[in-house]
Design a protein that fits this description.
Layout (H helix, E strand, L loop, with lengths): L1 H4 L1 E3 L10 H14 L20 H4 L3 H17 L2 E13 L2 E7 L13 H14 L5 E7 L3 E8 L2 H9 L12 H12 L7 E7 L10 H10 L2 E8 L4 E8 L5 E7 L4 H10 L4 E4 L2 H14 L3 E12 L2 H19 L7
Parallel strand pairs: 3-4, 3-6, 6-7, 7-10
Antiparallel strand pairs: 1-2, 2-11, 4-5, 8-9
Helix pairs in contact: 2-4, 4-11, 5-6, 5-10, 7-8, 8-9
Amino acid sequence: MTFFNDITFAHKWVFWLMLLIPLLVAWYLWKNKNYNPEIKVSSFEGFKGTKTAVKQYLRPILLVLRLSGIALLIIVLARPQSRSSWKNITTEGIDIVIALDISGSMLSQDFKPNRIEAAKEVAIEFIDSRPNDRIGLVIFSGESFTQCPLTTDHAVIKNLFAGVKTGMIADGTAIGMGLANAVSRIKDGTAKNKVIILLTDGVNNQGSIAPLTAAEIAKQFGVRIYAIGIGTRGKALSPVAMLPNGQYQYDYVDVEIDEPLMKNIANMTGGRYFRATDNEKLKQIYKEIDRLEKTIIEEKSFTNKAEEFFPFAITAGILLLLESLLRFTVYKSIP
């Protein structure tokens, strides 16, 4: 079936000749209906009990063979051709650095189970959806460091993501430091598109680099920043003190995110600002970023055609030759 699915015809109009087939059938039926040969015999007594020969029942096979041969010759005239095609695909990924806030407030439980675990889970899903991209991870709180440089080995970065937790570095919220570190990791990349996903739940209160200064540097290097403010509106159950047993004491506190700053950072670099207020909203934001930042894929299609009339011509010749042999041997007519 695959062979016939790939067949096309150069001269499809030739198939109008197929109308000759029913006309030939009609002519054959009319001829045999009006053909009444006569032979004079003195008596039919000698023919009593004589059975009709099998070959007489099979005589219409001559017509079937001839019509099949003619049909195949018409197909040959229509020039059957096979068409093979293939694609030359060039893929160019995007460089993406995720700058993740790991300050103590990321343990707030307005997300399930908390903000940092929800952020990690959704980020890992995002990484799985970007198989052609180089992705890196920068973490920050009171200071910042690179957890994973840009890599296409997504298994490595996902493992490193799993190990991220609050308390790895001094507490605080150094948005400018985290952003500047991310820019330094992505600026020398060879990809045409460079993107930083900045995720934080607070207000910049630490670091020697101002967030807008870091954003200006990103702009100079053609880096787009998608900023995500993570936290519900109003109050959230958040850690307020460390107990002697190493556990946190929780209480409801106001959620404060410097949204004007985040919007300025995104707008300066041609990106966008998003507010995630729950797990589902955070997933939708990453899906939107995935839609906005599509991997560059170039496709070139090639098509090759080959003449395929030969098997049809051979089969037609065999059928017509067989019809002729039967007509002049087994079904030979005596004048």
